[in-house]
Amino acid sequence: MIFISAEDINKNLTVKSLIGAIETVYKKDAKVPVRHIHNIDSFQHNNDPSQLMLMPAFLNEEDYGIKLLNVFPSNPLIGLSRVNALYVLFDSKNGKVKAVLDGTELTNQRTAAMSAIASKYLSKINSKKLLVLGTGALVPYMIEAHCFVRPIEEVLVWGRDANKAENIVNKYKNNKIKISVAYNLEKACAHADIITSLTSAKKEFIMSSWLNNNLHIDLVGAHTKLMAELQPSAFSLGNIYVDNKEAVLEEAGDLINAINLGYITKSDIQADIKELIKKNMNIRNDNKKFTIYKSVGHALSDLAAARLVYQSLSKSI
């Protein structure tokens, strides 16, 4: 057994290699149980409980693994990461532990890669303007991943705390990316080709009337029933795709709200990401289309990422 640190993961993963590994794994037979979520009632923040999530995935006759994911909403208030995780990779032939990995870094990397894969199939091929909503740890990963799959020329960053958004932008000063703070969210949404939303908002703040009709919107936040990013009526404007249909219908607050309020039905979900990958379905045969990708986190992508890092490091051991 080996321990693989966040630094090791960073050294051995690229957006290109991770996208390739995820797409390869998603074409294989796999079993991915719905994740178990346990509230930690003694740690609550504004009635939002901290949670332990257990996320297993089994690749038939190959590896299997499980991610132990802690989400503590109040952590940023004391300078700690909201998400902390560990991943355990097993050998399916004998149950032997092959590796224990830093699950937080693994989560950041695979989340961005999954959004990039969705964008590859769903966004305009010539998308040039990316709007990032949120100021958390995922932001740099998302910028890199989206810029890898589309010819992004301009990145705008919006946050409820403009100072945090400004700090992110300042870190890119010596980078080739043209990046600036979006102070007017309505205006920024209207001109974006791709929006990626990475917040823990409890009430929707992306309004239907702000969105143009050829937008791709990547909804990564709002991973519980108590959260929401996109106004319910906006879901009726676009073609909806998800990382896993069963999971989003159980956990995705804003999408569940849209269904409960009658703006959409469950059948309006076109497909999950695995179907797009298997069929190599590029949905954007024209630019006049509004697409929505809603994700809550899928354990098979964690397994794909863990296998890739392990295989890379095993060659040098």
Key words describing this protein structure:
317 residues; alpha/beta; seven-stranded mixed β-sheet
Task: Give a written overview of the molecule.
- Helix content is 33%, strand content 27%.
- It has helices spanning 6-12, 15-26, 103-122, 139-149, 162-171, 185-191, 245-251, 253-260, 273-279, 299-314, and strands at 2-4, 30-31, 36-45, 48-59, 63-71, 83-91, 97-102, 129-133, 154-158, 178-181, 194-197, 216-219, 239-242, 269-272, 291-294.
- The protein is α/β, with parallel strands linked by helices and 317 residues long.
How many angstroms separate the termini?
12 Å
Strand segment count: 15
* Classification by helices and strands: alpha/beta
**Strand order of the biggest β-sheet:** 10-9-8-11-12-15-13-14
How many helical stretches?
Answer: 10
User: What proportion of the residues form beta strands (DSSP E)?
Assistant: 25-35%
Rg? 19 Å
State the order of secondary-structure elements, H for helix, E for strand: EHHEEEEEEHEHEHEHEEEHHEHEH
Shape: globular
Relative helix content: 25-40%
Low-confidence stretches: none
